[in-house]
Write a structure and sequence with these properties.
Largest sheet: 5 strands, parallel
Radius of gyration: 15 Å
Distance between the termini: 42 Å
Order of helices and strands: HEHEHEHEHEHH
Structural class: alpha/beta
CATH superfamily: Sugar-phosphate isomerase, RpiB/LacA/LacB
Number of domains: 1
Length: 167
């Protein structure tokens, strides 16, 4: 696991600490190991972690509960961002996007994440534990945490449309 703050000066480390966020985490049994790694990395970077489960790699049927914990915390403003991990990432992404104010995206690569943060203000990232996320999650998390939303008029208008449309 790469240390985010390794090799950086004390001022950079202090800035990371001042910009600490509260991050809600949730995973199913397939995502437990990766969730544990992400949680440890976030804490090492000075962020606060809200762990909504799963607490072992044993499979269960509570995938929606874990997604609801993370999406609910983000939607209510109890967490700044959220991370969800399941076998494919897709089911948790679908569930999270049912919450008003949640904009969950798949964490495929860092470039896509930069775009999702800048253009769509993504506030939840979903990882596919069974499809290679373990090789790329750190770069994606850096992009997710460090990239700011570019609040251009057209982007704000799109977000407003997302919030008012119900199907």
């Amino acid at each position: 696991m790469r240390d985010l703050c390794a090799g950086k000066g004390i001022l950079v480390k202090i800035l990371y600490m001042l910009a600490a966020m509260k991050i809600a985490l949730g995973a199913d049994g397939f995502g437990f190991v990766l969730k544990t790694q992400v949680a440890a990395w976030l804490v090492a970077c000075g962020h606060e972690v809200m762990d909504g489960g799963i607490f072992s790699a044993a499979p269960d049927m509570k995938l929606m509960d874990y997604a609801d914990f993370v999406a609910g915390a983000v939607a209510k403003g109890e967490a700044d961002r959220g991370v969800l991990i399941c076998m494919s990432g897709g089911m948790m992404q679908i569930r999270a996007n049912r919450f008003a104010g949640v904009r969950a995206v798949m964490g495929f690569d860092a470039d896509a994440m930069v775009h999702d943060r800048e253009a769509s203000d993504a506030n939840v990232v979903c990882f596919a534990a069974s499809y290679g996320a373990e090789a790329v999650w750190e770069d994606i998390m850096l992009a997710f945490l460090e990239t700011e939303f570019e609040a251009l008029d057209r982007r704000l208008a799109r977000l407003a449309l997302l919030e008012r449309v119900t199907l």
